[in-house]
Amino acid sequence: MTPEPVGRSSATLDEPVLDVDEIQGDVLPGFNTLHRRLIAVCFDQRDRGQTMLAELAPRVATLAEVCHLRSERRERLAHGRGRPRTPLWLNLALTARGLQRLGADPTSVRDRSFAAGLGAISPTLGDPTDPGVHGHPSTWRVGGTAAREPDALLLLGNDDAATLAIGAERILAALRAAGVCVLYDETGAMLPGGREHFGFRDGIAGPAVRGRLSARPDDMLARRSLGPTDPRAPYESRPGRPLVWPGQFVFGLPRQLDDPVVAGPAFEGGAAWVRNGSLLVFRRLEQDVSAFRRFLATEAPGLPRGGEERLAALLVGRWPSGAPLVRWPEADPGEESDDFGYALDLLAVRCPAAAHIRKVNPRDLPTDLGGSGRTLATHVLRRSIPYGGPDAAERGLLFLCWQTSIVRQFERLTVGWMNRDDAPQPGGHDLLVGQAPVRCAMLDGVAVVTSERFVVPTGGAYLFAPSTSALRALAEGDTS
Amino acid sequence: MQTIGMADGADDFARRPARLGALAARWDERLAQLRSRARPAFDDNSSYLAETRDDDAVHMVTWDAFPRFLSGWFAVDADRDERRYRAAETLKPVRFNGEPLRVCTAAAGTNHVPEDALGEPVAALFRQQDEYCEWRVGGNLERVVFTCEPPEYWAYLAEVDIELAVELYRELVDERVVAEDLVWRTDVASYDGANGWRVYARAGDYNPWNRWNTVDGLVHCTHPANTLAAALKLIGDGTQAYQGDYGEPIRDAGELLCRTGFANPNRFSDPAIAGAISLLIEAGVAVGAAEPLGVTFTEPRLTGLARPSGDNPNVRWRAARRHGDAVVRAELTITEMTVGGAPLQFGGQVADHLRMRIAIGMRPVARGPLTRLSALKRCCPAPGHPDVAMVVDRACAGIGPTEWAAFAPVEGTSAARKPALTSPRRVPDPVDPHESSRMLG
User: Fold this and answer.
1) Would you call B212 helix, strand, or coil by DSSP?
2) In sequence order, what are the residues at sequence separation of 6 or more whose Cβ sits closer than 8 angstroms to the Cβ of residue B437?
3) pLDDT level of residue A8 (50, 70, 90 thresholds)
4) I need a surface site. Which of B3, B126, B228, B398 has the fewest CB within 10 A?
5) Residue in B with minimal Cα distance to A256
6) pTM score over 0.90
7) Do A368 and B283 lie within an 8 Å CB cutoff?
8) Confidence band (pLDDT; 50, 70, 90) for B312?
């Protein structure tokens, strides 16, 4: 009889087979397209909403479809050929109000922030609380107030701008025919080099999701590059990329426990239509690049070493190339890396505790949640894309992320970590993205303070993306 | 040594000006004893500092204030939030090795209590809040009082000056408090497992579970894990280094606590503290508790509290007692509030937004490679509640239903408080939150 393992259990990993035709494709594996378009709509009445769903549900891109083309894309890129032409990808998510208007109970999703809506949660997120002040929900382009709250958000993606535009026009025509009004319509596009508007390489880090695409034991959603004898293999898909159970992102699937390799039970409860769905956080974040550059110019001379580029790296935790500061604290080596941790830098000598990437992903450090294993349950799947051109007056980030708990995931990262000066480790606020009237951080031994917001919320919503069969059921009025 | 006292600067000892020096010195001696006792059993690495100096660097460890054990226990339930909030406000009977305290008639000079000297069980209840933060709600949810003061301090006050303790209790809880309420009326015995029954306290000793600190009020921590000794011992034990099955350092705090059991992996506090200390030791420093000694509140971040209209209220978070500059007791006055968009119905909703902290002093030390011990305990997930686990040094199958029953929290049955969200009105006092858990004789 095999003796019980000491420490934690190391049960044989049996990753679940995912419902590849049910899960929307931007949840898993993610569109990852060069262009995206977000269209927020209002259908007001149940029959219009049902008509819209009946029209759009068959067009929703699934995990299966997106994965198939992902494989093709990898193949082509590996052989020096460009990205393949893809059909327009469409995903769809509903707000609590949208679900209610369709006759479904939004509390069935069992996330109190989703049920309340982003507008009600805005003060908690640290957004401006004076009506009329830039960033207050009353000033948002979409969401935040009853008048601007959408019922649904359409997510469109394609690598070709023209294909995206043509496809979007067809969808808009269908919406008009269904009597659905468009509240907001905006296109985002990847910037050269995969950077965001502050000049930093973005989207490097993120969890790899456990799960299989079929019953074949080796048909993994997330490709594994570590050999079977590598001690990190049970925990990472590749060096620095942690494996997280899919229940953290898709309802009805095994979720994360303290032991990284043990599958926890799915969160129970709720209606059947919640299964295989996911919660979406959308935040339209305006980036004040001018203010950021002025801040760098003003504050850099007060630091003991380095100039503006170093100060920016201290705020982000990476050099503009994507190289992590904790590995290269003196200068940008010019190459990005995701293979690093902070355990040897607990005292934040190499990388500030308040650096953005360290704030939102403390990796192997203990946090106010306890051991580093608990950080795995805070991860979200980011699908953000910049909007506005490199020199546009109005530019920023269409921030999108998926999870099964807005409270314990997105809001832990923002309210619980970025916006506090004492979490996940003491050392200051996230000066770059944190939302608080006054933010302070220790950078190279100097306390740097600012009340200026470089990132201002200008729209958003909390939404739920049902499975494809749930979309069809909602279209038919079946809300059981 | 920074002293504890009222937020207006009037520390407790200063109320006895003629004895101020003696009171403070004797408390310093108690603290020194606790710090000395916290040294790990195998201090081969000389990594523990029983005393820290003003010039030692300080690393703050912070953690969530709402009990992770309760969040984890109810994680599988559809109505997990309400159940964890209720449980947090429900008192649980004190047990030692599964047995309640009992009245006893013990002979002087001996701690052993024969069975025929045992009397009736003694009612003693504690709050199921084990992150070194405890709270109690004023009847209509108009006031929530938070404390992180350890029982040892109040036991000391009662020992050296019972009238001082009574004076403070009257100011903090109720003017009806009398000295007899704060002490054991008889000798009491606790069950020590294979060693049988032993004297736990003598008649006249301070009773940390007296009514004014449990069912009828809140002065200091009541949970058996929320003691100053436990916090200091955790720092001490955390300086011992351990290795895994192949000699590799164990760095993850969860794995560390599952293997060693020297602290509780089901809390936020223990893994946060143990995790930080293990990394500090690896970095070549010795550590010990720094001032302010023990656990204190961080500055509260209550942006999550809002009026139903969405605007931020003028939240009144009053620091009622301080330990030096740090807050150890705070009172939050609230009316018509929401928390994160939901109506405020339980004190735990506020606790969700609080953080606790402890100061770790550090000093570089010259040492060779760390001596590491092996650790062979295991975490056994609770049946039906896999987010929490019991640490044992035997097979998980050997844990019986009685043990699991004692491990489980007591659930609350009190009605949620529902303050009016449109106009102020009095709501009925809630059902006595400890009704269902009062220990039966």
Assistant:
1) helix
2) B90, B91, B92, B93, B125, B410
3) low
4) B398
5) B387
6) yes
7) no
8) low
Interchain contact, B78 vs A343, CB within 8 Å = no
Determine contact, residues A94/A161, Cβ cutoff 8 Å: no
CA distances B352 to A408, B88, B157, Å, are: 11, 12, 31
The answer to whether residue B231 scores a pLDDT higher than 80 is yes
Q: With contact defined as beta carbons under 8 Å apart, do A387 and A396 qualify? A: yes
Q: Describe chain A by its helix, strand, coil percentages, rounded to 5.
A: 30, 20, 50
* Structure confidence by residue, pLDDT tens digits, B172-186: 999 999 999 999 999
Question: Locate tokens 């893994």: which residue?
Answer: B271
Q: For residues B112 and A172, give the distance between their C-alpha atoms in angstroms, rounded to a whole number.
A: 84
Q: What is the pLDDT of residues A92-146, one digit of tens each?
A: 999 999 999 999 999 999 898 999 999 999 988 999 988 989 999 999 999 999 9
ipTM above threshold 0.90: yes
Between chains, do A267 and B75 touch, taking CB under 8 Å as contact?
A: yes
β-bridge partners, B390: B380
> Has residue B437 got a pLDDT over 50?
no
Summarised one tens digit per residue, pLDDT across range B39-77 is 998 877 789 999 999 999 999 999 999 999 999 999 988
List of residues 6+ apart from A131 with CB closer than 8 A:
A138
User: In angstroms, what separates the C-alpha of A390 from chain B's closest C-alpha?
Assistant: 34
**What is d(CA A473, CA B303) in angstroms, rounded to the nearest whole number?**
39
Residues of chain A contacting residue B396, judged by C-beta atoms under 8 Å apart: 4
- Return d(Cα A478, Cα A386) in angstroms, integer: 37
* Total beta-carbon pairs less than 8 A apart between chain A and chain B: 182
